[in-house]
Structure formats: structure tokens, C-alpha cells
Amino acid sequence: MSNNSNQTNQTNKKTVAVLEITSRPDSFCRAGRRWTKTATQVPLSEFTKEQVKALKAESNLVVVEKDVELAELDGGE
After folding, report:
1. Torsion angle (degrees, nearest 10) of CA 55, 57, 62, 63
2. What angle do CA 36, 40, 41 make, to 5 degrees?
3. How many CB atoms lie within 10 A of CB 50?
4. Neighbour tally for 1: CB within 10 Å
5. What are the DSSP calls for 28-68, one per residue?
6. The pTM is what?
7. In degrees rounded to 5, what are phi and psi of residue 41?
8. 36-60: pLDDT as tens digits
9. Cβ–Cβ contacts within 10 Å for residue 23, how many?
10. Confidence (pLDDT) at 11
11. Long-range contacts for 69-76 (Cβ within 8 Å, ≥24 apart)?
């Protein structure tokens, strides 16, 4: 029974897959958005598969797929 409790405590952290996108030029448009030299994280779920493919193939963008931890909205419970 305590094993189950430990698993729950270890899995309380929630993550979401994001694309972190930075433009090589000062500003660049792709996938219906304007990207700048400041890295922007956007949930992967906001893009179609075709948009993800186009973003990753674009030489004017630096695109990194990563998982980020979500902040607990209810005070950590």
C-alpha cells in the first residue's frame, strides 16, 4: 500500500510537450506566427503535424522540442 503512495508522490509533476522556437533573423513568420530572437515556448498541441514539420525544416528558425513542467494551479495539491 505504501508503494502506491510513493508512486503517486513521484508522478504528481505534470509536463507538457512544447516547441521552443527562436528566429535567426530579427523577426520571421512561419506557421501563422511571428518569431523573434527571444525564445518562445508553445505547446506542441497548438500546431498541426504539417506545421511542426515546416517549423523544424525552416533554416531561419531554431526549433527544440522539449517537455516542460506545468505549475500547479491549485497551490501544489
Report:
1. 50
2. 160
3. 9
4. 4
5. EEETTEEEESS-EEEEGGGS-HHHHHHHHH-TTEEEEEEEE
6. 0.74
7. -100, 125
8. 999 999 999 999 999 999 999 999 9
9. 20
10. 57
11. 69/13, 69/14, 69/15, 70/14, 70/15, 70/16, 72/14
